[in-house]
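Dear all,

This email documents one entry for the complex benchmark we are building for the journal club exercise. For each entry we list the sequence lines for every component of the assembly. Then comes the predicted three-dimensional structure of the complex as a C-alpha cell string, followed by one or two observations. Please use this as the template for your own entries, and keep the labels exactly as they appear.
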Amino acid sequence: MNELLRRLLNLPEQASQHARDVDGLHYFVVLVTMGAGIAIFTTAFWFMVRYRRRSQDEKTPEVQPRHWHEALFVGVPLAVFLLWFAIGFGQYVDLSQPPPGAMDVFVQGKKWMWKFAYPGGPSSLDVLRVPAGRPVRLLITSRDVIHSFFVPGLRVKQDALPGRYTQTWFNADQPGRYQIFCAEYCGLSHSGMLGELVVMPPADFDAWLAEQRRGAALAQDAAATPGEPLMLGSSILEQGRVVAAQQGCLKCHSVDGSRHIGPTFLDLYRRQEKLSTGELVPADEAYLTRSMMDPAAQVVAGYQNVMPSFQGRMTPPEVAAVLEYLKSLKTPAVQAGPSEGPVYESTPSK
Amino acid sequence: MASHAALAHHFESLEKQTQAQRLGMWLFLASEILLFTALFAAYGVYRYLYAGAFAEASRGLETWMGGVNTFVLVTSSLTVALGLDAARQGRTRRTATLFFLSIGMGLVFMGLKAVEYRHHVLHGELPGRFYTAGHIAGSGGSLFFALYFLITGLHAVHVVVGMTVLGVIGVKSWRGAYSAEYHTPVELAGLYWHLVDLIWIFVFPLIYLI
Amino acid sequence: MSPRPASSAPVFAERNYLNTPATGLRSWLTTRDHKRIGVMFLVAALIAFAIGGFFALLIRLELLTPGPTIMDAMSYNRIFTLHGVVMIFLFMIPAIPSGFGNFLVPIMVGAKDVAFPRLNLLSFYLYLLGAVIALAGMVYGGADTGWTFYTPYSTTTPTKVVPILLGAFILGFSSILTGLNFIVTTHTLRAPGITWNKLPLFVWSIYATSVIQILATPVLGMTLLLVAIEHAFGWGIFDPARGGDPVLFQHFFWFYSHPAVYIMILPAMAVMSEVVCAFSRKNIFGYKAVAYSSLGIAFVGFFTWGHHLFTSGQSPYNAGVFGVLSMFVGIFTAIKVFNWVATMYRGSISFTTPFIYFVGFLFFLFFGGMTGVALATVSLDIHWQDTYFVVAHFHFIMVGSTMMAFLAALHYWWPKITGRMYNERWGLVAAVFVILGFVFTFLPQFLLGNEGMPRRYYSYPERYWALNVASTAGASVLALGFMIVLAYILVALKHGAVAGADPWGSRGYEWLTASPPPLENFDELPAFERGPHEYHDLPAASPQAPPGAARGASHG
C-alpha cells in the first residue's frame, strides 16, 4: 500500500522513519481530498445535468439554507482540517526537537556549495556522510544569503540564514545516496547548489570519520590559518557576546589573552589545546560545544575542573551564537578583513 | 438644502458628501498609521535584539530638543483645532490666521529637527555603512540611527506635507472659500495635522525616552 | 443556447458612457467616469497579462530540457522575477478590483460614480507610473531576486532591483486609493432601497478586498522602500552583515503578501457568486454565509502570514498558531464552495461560457484550496516548501481561480461594457482549451514538487524531465486558448450582435440599466425593491426585455 501510493504520488524514496510518517499523513490528506472532491463534483455535475435549462422562461424556487446546513459546511471540514493539523504539527514538533546524544554536523551554505564540518575537525564539501540508524543534528547557517538545506528523501528542509544558526535533525535508516538541494533561491547557480547525502553503515562511518580526523589534525598543523567568523558585525556575534556575558562565561574566561580561572577565549578557536591527559586536540566547533555541555570530559592541562555544565541551560542557537563569538575573538594580526560583498563569478554553463 | 457650489454631481446632498469625505480621510489616516507601524515594529524588534546599544544611543539624543518639539507640535495642533472652531462659526479669516500660526510652529519643529540632524551628521551618527561614531559597540548603533532617520525622516515628510495642506487651505480660507455651512476641507486638513502630531507623540517616547 | 435571438429586438443604447461627453482620446485620459477608468484598467491589465504570459512561456520553454535550452541562467532568473512581478502587481491585484470593480461597484450600489472620482483617476495614473517605472527597470537590466525580494539577496544583487521596488511601491498607492474609494462608495453612496442585506455579493467581496488593500498595502510599501534604501545606500535594516535581521523582512513581506493573495482570490469569489446565480437562474444559497465569509477571509487572512516561514527556524508555537489560523481561511472558503454548489440545486442551468468558467473555477479553487490546507499542516510543508508543489498550489488557487473568474467576468459583463455579444461557440471552445491547458500545465508540477524539485531552478536533474515536458506542453495549449479568446473578443468589439440591457436574464442591479450604461449609470433610478440574487419571482417576460420593462417588472 505504502509503495503503491508512494509511486502514484511520485514521492521519492523514504530514507527515515520521519519520511514514512510524513508520507502517511500525505496519503491520508490526498485520499480524503480525493474523496471529498469526488463527492462535491459528483453532486455538482448531477445538479448541472438534472437542473439544466429546459426552456427559456423556466422558473426556480427560492431555496434557503437551514442553520444545520451551514453548521455542517463549517463543522465537517473544520474537524478534518484540525485532525490533519494535529498530526502534522506533532511531526513538526518532533522535527524541531533533536534527541539527546545526536551527532552534530555543522552545515554552512555558501554561494553555491554546502560545507559540512564534523566533530573532531574534518569537513567536506557538498557530500554529507552520516551513519545509518543514528540521529544526526544539523546546525545550519549561511555565509552570504539565505539558502535552504533540503533532502527530499528525508522530507526535511531547513533554511540556512546568514548570521544565525538554525537546527534540524534526522535519523536515516536506509544506507544509500540521496540528493541534497538548495531550496531557497540564492542567485546565478541556485540550481547548481546540489549536494549528496551518503548514509553509511555505522561501522563504515566510524572508520571514515577516524580516518578524516587524522587527516584533519595533520592539515591543521600544516596550515595555521584560523577559521574566520561567520560574519563580522552581524547580530549573531552580538548575541553570542550577550549570551556569554549572561551565562557568566566571561567571569572565568578572559577575551584579551590573559590567564584567568579558565583558558582565555582570545584565539581559542582552532588552537591546539593540550589536555590534562596529555592529548592534543583542536578546539573546533565540536570540542567547544562539548566543553560547554560536558566540561569535565576534556580539561585543558593546567586548569582546574571547576566549570559547570551548560547542558539544558542554553538553546542550540545560543550555543551556536557563543561559538561564533568565540571564533571572532582573534588577535588583530590575523583578523580577517570586512566581510566581502557577493562576488559574481560567471559559471560555465553545463 | 440648496445645491452648493462644492457639491459634486454624484452626491445627493452636501451632508452625504461631507460624510463620505470624512470616512475617506479616516481610512487614509488608518493606512498612514500602518505605514509607520511597519517602522515601529522594526524598531521594537531591534530594540529587543540590541537592548543595550539602543538604550545607549537613545541616551545620546538631545531629549530637551525632542521635548520642545513635542510641546511645539501639540500647541500647533491646538491652534489648528481652534482654527476649525473658528471655521464652524464662519470666521474664516481667523481660521487662516490660526493655520498660518500652526505652520509657523511646524517650521520651528523642522528647524529644531535640522539642528539635531546636523549634530548627528557631525558626530558620524548615521545609518548603516555611514555610521562612524564608535562609542557604541556592535551593530546596534548603526541600526538605531538607521531607524531613527527613517522614522523621524518619514515623519518630517509628513510635517512638510501637512504644512503645505494647511497653507493651501489657509489661503483659501482667507479668500473666503469656506463658510459656517461648508468647511469640510478645513476639517480634513485639521485631521491630517492631528495625525502628524499623534505620530510624533508615539515617536518621542519611543526614540527619546524609553 | 443563449444568447438567442430575442423576440423584442435588443437595443444598443445610443447615448452611453463610451460616447458621452466625447469620444476622443483626450476625453478618455481626463475622464472621471468610473466606467471609463475601469475599462482603462482592464485594457492595461490585459496588456500586463500578455507581457507576463510571454515571460511564462519563456520559462516553460527554458525548462523543456534539463540543461540550458534557450537562455542563460541570469536571463532565466530575471525572467521568472519579471513574470512574478508583472503578473502579481500589474495584472492580478488590479485586474478584477480596479477593472471590473470600478466598472460595476457604483452601478451595483445604484450610484452615479465612486465617492472620489478624481482620486480614482489618480489611482489609474499611479498604476501607469508604477508600471512604467517597473518596466523601465526591466528594460535597463531587470532584477533577479524573484518577486519575493528576499533579503539579503535582494539587497546585495548587482541587478537593477531599485526601479522595480519603487514601481511596486507606487502601485501600492494606486491599490490603496482604489480600495479607499470602494469602501466609502459602499458606505455612503448606496441608492435608497439597497440595504446592506441587499448588497450584491460582488460588492461584499470587493469591500472585503478593499479593507485588505488599505490595511496591508502600506506595510508592503514601507518594506519595499526599506529594501530599496538598503540596496541603494546600505542602511542595514535587513542586512545581517550590518546587524539586520533577514527574517524580519520575511515577516513584513508576508504580512502584506499573504493577505494580498486574498486581494486576488476574493474578487474572483465576488465574480463567481454573481455568475452562479445568473446562470443557475436561482437565488444564492445562504446569502449571509457567502457575504460574511468574505469578511472572515479578509480578517483571518491578516493572521496567517507566518505559514510562509515554517522552514525559517521559527518556534513551534508560532508555527502552531499560524497553522491553525490558516485552517480557518480554508473553512471560510469551504462555506462558499458548498453554498455555490447548493445554489445549483433546483436551478435552471445554462451552459454558457461564463458558467463553464465557473465549473473550472470550482475545480481549481477546490484543489488549490485543499492543497493549501495540506500545506498548512506544517510537517508536509517542510517537504513542499519552495518546491514545485507550492508553485502548482498557488497557480491553481491564485491564477487558476482568478483567471477563471477574470474570464468569466469578461464574458459575463462584456455585453454590459461594450453593448455587444461575443461569439458563444468560440467562447466555449476557448474555455475548454484554457481549462484543460491549465490542468495540464500545473498538474505535473504537483508531482514534480512531490518528488522534490525546488522552484526557481534553471536546470534540473534528468529524473524531472518528463513531467517538465508535460507541463510545457500544457502551457502551449493554455496560450492557444488565450489567443482564441483575444481574437473573438476583438471581433466582437465591432461585429458582435447587439446585446440589449439584459441578455442573460440576470437579476443583478447592473442589468437594470442600458448596455452600454449611460454616463450617470441609470437614466432613471430603479426602486431596488428586490435583492440582486432573487429569481423565484421571475416574471414570465422575456429576459431580452428593454430596460424600461425590466424596471417595471421589478415590483415583486
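Observations: Chain A touches chain C through 99 residues (CB under 8 Å). Residues 222-232, 333-350 of chain A have pLDDT under 50 and may be disordered.
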